[in-house]
Amino acid sequence: MKIVILSQNPKLYSTSRLVEAGEKKGHEMLVVDHGKCDLVIEKKKPGLIYQGQEITGVSGVIPRIGASITFYGTAVVRQFEMMKVFTAVESQALVRSRDKLRSLQILSRAGLGLPKTVFSNYSRDVGTIIDNAGGAPVVIKLLEGTQGLGVVLADNRNSAESILEAFNGLKARVIVQEFIKEAKGADIRAFVIDGVVVGAMKRQGKEGEFRSNLHRGGSANIIELTDEEENAAIKAARVMGLGVAGVDMLQSARGPLILEVNSSPGLEGIEAATGKDIAGLMIKYVERHAE
Ligand SMILES: Nc1ncnc2c1ncn2[C@@H]1O[C@H](COP(=O)(O)OP(=O)(O)OP(=O)(O)O)[C@@H](O)[C@H]1O
Ligand SMILES: [Mg+2]
Ligand SMILES: [Mg+2]
User: Fold this and answer.
1) Distance (Å, rounded) from C-alpha 209 to C-alpha 219?
2) 138 CB within 6 A, ligand 1
3) What is the ipTM, given to two decimal places?
4) Ligand nearest to the CA of 145
5) Domain residue spans in the chain?
6) Calpha distance 159→155 (Å, rounded)
7) Is the pTM of this model over 0.90?
8) Span 117-179: which CATH code?
9) Which among 103, 142, 209, 213 is the best mutation to test ligand 1's pocket, defined by most ligand atoms within 8 Å of the CB?
């Protein structure tokens, strides 16, 4: 079948692995830069033009949409949906997953464990916000942050107040979160496909670092999840409506706490840590659902 990978860079590890895994199974793999697609909308005839050519005959789409191009990327995914093409990530779920506040609300309603989190539109009263998050130490996160940048640990009330005031001065939107000390600078990434955890790794921050991001010098190892962790990851992906998801959790004294659910989880770290062909499993997922 013809499978489209929506990606802005064919050289990225995840993109090239998906192409490789699809070709190995005999599929025609096409990398399409969603940023360079034109959408043609007319009565009952949705179309998509890429590099001067109309794209037709596609059975499945695997979106790999970067955070900076969510709006247009989602429109392209939606266009494929209009063309009745199966997509590994639905446009609605993609939009939902990119809104941290909305995601936390959905996860909380589903009864999943979360670090206590405060989001405020009126953030000048910094003391109240810190109190509502349970008091220092707290983790303060820039809403637009990624790869661990814009995530700060405030050990005490004074530093929490000055950090919040500094972010306010920059008109940056932040969330304030209870600091989970027992996580000891580590988190868990569970890779979920079609309601099954296909691989999991534990990421450990470098010495003296509470952030476990690999981009911040952390290291990753394969891990066996407890039943509780596995169930939490599966449920988180389900309530977010994601067929493919990277669920990030902290291990705490009160069980797993979900940090976030990624809709375009990277393949490099998880394939290296687990030694598994996750790209191949994603292709199988598309095969099962596409015509
Ligand atoms: N409330 C918390 N308590 C303890 N550690 C935390 C907490 N929140 C985050 N961390 C640590 O900091 C790391 C980075 O935080 P987070 O994943 O929220 O931000 P990010 O990676 O920048 O954002 P994104 O994953 O959306 O790109 C986490 O992987 C985790 O190790
Ligand atoms: Mg993260
Ligand atoms: Mg993330």
Assistant:
1) 12
2) no
3) 0.96
4) 1
5) 2-89, 99-112+182-263, 117-179
6) 7
7) yes
8) 3.30.1490.20
9) 213
